[in-house]
Write a sequence for this structure.
């Protein structure tokens, strides 16, 4: 992997001085054009051996480009607070039109943990597979990824440290950790080589840069960044889906039609069971708060299916300090400038806490699919991305509970009419609700696909026939209790 | 302060049941109307003694209102990372149209620190004065503040703990901390009484609620929240400033005219001095990184005054992992829904780090004043708010360095024309720049007022005559070095 980076490439000071002004001008021009175009983000990952010039290169890039539209983040070792490893990287993704530099990245921990034997080979391979999926998603969402690895041979590293130590003005730059790291040099090179090999994909290849000569290294890195900026500029924007959707021809699988919509529930039995279930949930939430788990609940359903009412019966049993309710509507300006999962990652709870989503990331394969708000390839790949997202939540300790509240078109009509006639409910019904209703078969089809493709063992869908409000609320509470009981037992 | 809360108010269960449905309906209706209107935010602070029903009330409010548009934050004791105490509260302010509940708030630490004698009387008074200023600003920015203090007498608290302990199902609710707190009960009541007295202002009074009877307490709190929502709805929106501004009649103070714009600087002397100053700054930044200080730099100036160029010469001397550059343009959707200082608080650096602002919070008293983007009372009160903001930064360890880069109208014209004629600079000039130029006297006047009113001993303005780019860049670097040297010495 690193052989060609040990050849000892050199760029003469004269050539460097000759080429630099052009490179700087082109970098700046490309950066401004990207900002102006606003189509894609560029993310540069900087990795490599100690003393191979990572820090110097990052500083140079900041000098050559406009630092006002460039954000550099230094990534230290992660802390586990119950959020998936990748959570903190979502927080620092550059928005469209911007350039981000990550000094260390999602590769930092997996490589360090493997070198130190905290992870075995299988776990290491699993983490790299996750990274591949994550990067594939980023690229599909329009992020141009540039992965740079600065390499210096063991001999050259030792010599560089010696030279630095010999000069009192630079001796501080060599830490005890650097010298210790030298002892694991071979293991680190071996592990890094595996990591680079397994994650050099077509959409996000690694570029290994010989770090021995400063001029060569800087010029090479600068040109790589320029190439990435130009790739971002050249890439066509996401295709706009046709404005007038054709009707979906495919037949329904019958999943929703097969539910039992006839269930009824008397007032008194409802009240007493509600109280009993809420008490049970309250106790379970207290155990959750004390333990190593978190809770993510998703409420989806057609308009007027009773999402809000069910959600309120659930949070009534919880302590307000422990949960957060997140209603999901159309994305705002900041959210549109990021990959679509970005706005959901922000609300992932830490250990002991819960987030309840009123609508969710499933909007991608429901409303965005049916209303043609995104292109077909985008919602088609979303199923796998969502499964991957939820798998990460579960692995990090979350209990993921997803409800589809299924009502019949007849019941929806009854509720719409009731809302239109009830003064304090009239705000809950909009012309859009009536429009959505006309696409019922398309939505039905989308829901069935969604359940088929994203109901996994670790994060199953719970389809609840919801024509009766009381019955629905109790069913939701009961399922939630059962899922939590099971999680607490495990 | 608490006498009337020890009377033992009681609401009969019958009355509670009778009044509750109306209250809930009104709360929901007011909440939705607020959300729809989007004019103001409501922030409820919940404080009081242990066992006085704070937690129960917060949970009830979440049950009565729509939890999707209500955010509850539990505030624990603060950690010092070099950001002012109030920083973390800025992170959780509700946007316009929303309701936030803070369980604990900016009162938590000052009261606890005074009870435990970590703060003396003077420091306590100083922190309360800060709080008064902060709340005055929030209210002026359109936040309706409701401050609730739940009180229970010492005797009643002791009895409540005994009752809870007697029942095995509730014994867990009484912690050792609760029992210890009982020993400091009198001191706590005394300190809290002082705090409430000193911060019960006209715009943000405290409401003390007798916590002994659950029905009384809940109904009273619910009605207070309803009153706050209605106050938010009734308050007129901020007056819209007149669309066509009149010319400012006031005369210039001559501050800008008095600068020496004739300075020149040769290329060779520039290069060698630049290198020397950047080396000096680099060493100072390393000391900053190791120490208990942070750095906030503000670049302001007319269009084409050289802010970007000076900023780049500064960050060239810094490590990219240590600083962040924040360009400030017109506020986006999220930012417009918050008090105007909100978006700057987000970027306040932690200890050892630096943030450089290319334009800043001074936009309020410059562009917003001149272009009439905010009403006169709003920019007039901004001077004091900004001084207060910067004082907090300095108290928390920041070195605050503010540059006004002053150019003459003639030099600006030369630069505009040069930009229009240079292909790779043409993007830097917009029709707006030409328009702003027409208001030069108004801007001049605003700058002079700004410097007069916000150049303080702890955060002075550095007005740099900037007709010569080289001279400007060196002056900026020199001033920054001097300010840092002074700070490191202190």
């Amino acid at each position: 992997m690193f052989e060609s980076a040990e050849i000892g490439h050199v760029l003469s000071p004269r050539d460097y001085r000759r080429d630099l002004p052009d490179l700087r001008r082109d970098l700046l021009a490309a950066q401004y054009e990207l900002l102006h175009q606003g189509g894609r983000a560029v993310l540069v990952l900087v990795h490599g051996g100690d003393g191979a010039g990572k820090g110097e290169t990052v500083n140079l890039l900041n000098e050559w480009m406009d630092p006002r539209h460039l954000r550099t983040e230094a990534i230290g070792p992660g802390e586990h607070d119950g959020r998936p490893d990748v959570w903190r990287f979502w927080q620092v993704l550059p928005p469209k039109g911007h350039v981000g530099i990550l000094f260390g990245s999602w590769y930092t921990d997996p490589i360090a943990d493997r070198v130190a034997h905290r992870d075995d080979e299988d776990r290491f391979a699993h983490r790299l597979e996750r990274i591949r999926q994550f990067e594939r998603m980023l690229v599909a969402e329009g992020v141009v990824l540039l992965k740079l690895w600065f390499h210096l041979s063991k001999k050259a590293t030792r010599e560089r440290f010696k030279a630095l130590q010999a000069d009192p003005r630079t001796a501080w730059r060599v830490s005890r950790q650097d010298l210790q790291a030298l002892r694991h040099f071979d293991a680190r090179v071996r592990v890094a080589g595996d990591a680079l090999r397994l994650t050099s994909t077509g959409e996000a290849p690694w570029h290994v840069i010989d770090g021995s000569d400063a001029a060569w290294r800087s010029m090479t890195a600068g040109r790589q960044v320029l190439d990435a900026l130009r790739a971002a500029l050249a890439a066509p924007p996401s295709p706009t889906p046709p404005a007038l959707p054709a009707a979906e021809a495919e037949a329904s699988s019958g999943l929703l039609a097969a539910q039992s919509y006839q269930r009824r529930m008397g007032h008194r039995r409802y009240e007493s069971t509600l109280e009993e279930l809420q008490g049970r949930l309250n106790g379970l939430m207290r155990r959750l708060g004390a333990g190593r788990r978190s809770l993510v609940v998703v409420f989806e359903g057609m308009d007027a299916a009773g999402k809000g009412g069910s959600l309120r019966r659930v949070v009534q049993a919880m302590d307000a300090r422990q949960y957060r309710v997140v209603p999901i509507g159309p994305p705002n300006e900041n959210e549109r400038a990021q990959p679509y999962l970005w706005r959901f990652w922000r609300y992932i709870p830490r250990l002991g806490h819960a987030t309840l989503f009123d609508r969710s990331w499933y909007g991608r394969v429901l409303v965005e699919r049916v209303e043609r708000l995104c292109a077909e390839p985008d919602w088609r790949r979303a199923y796998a991305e969502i499964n991957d997202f939820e798998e990460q939540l579960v692995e990090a300790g979350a209990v993921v509970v997803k409800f589809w509240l299924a009502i019949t078109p007849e019941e929806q009509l009854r509720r719409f009419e009731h809302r239109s006639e009830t003064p304090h409910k009239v705000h809950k019904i909009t012309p859009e609700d009536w429009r959505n209703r006309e696409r019922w078969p398309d939505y039905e089809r989308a829901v069935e696909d969604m359940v088929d493709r994203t109901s996994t063992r670790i994060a199953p869908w719970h389809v609840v026939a919801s024509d009766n409000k009381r019955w629905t609320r109790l069913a939701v509470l009961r399922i939630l209790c059962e899922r939590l009981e099971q999680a607490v037992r495990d």
In short: Residues 88 and 383 of chain B are 23 Å apart (CA to CA). Residues 267-489 of chain B form a domain with the Rossmann fold fold (CATH 3.40.50.300). The interface with chain A takes residues 25, 28-29, 32, 36, 55, 58-59, 61-63, 66-72, 74, 101, 103, 308, 311-312, 315-316, 318-321, 324-327, 332-334, 358, 424, 427 of chain B (CB under 8 Å).
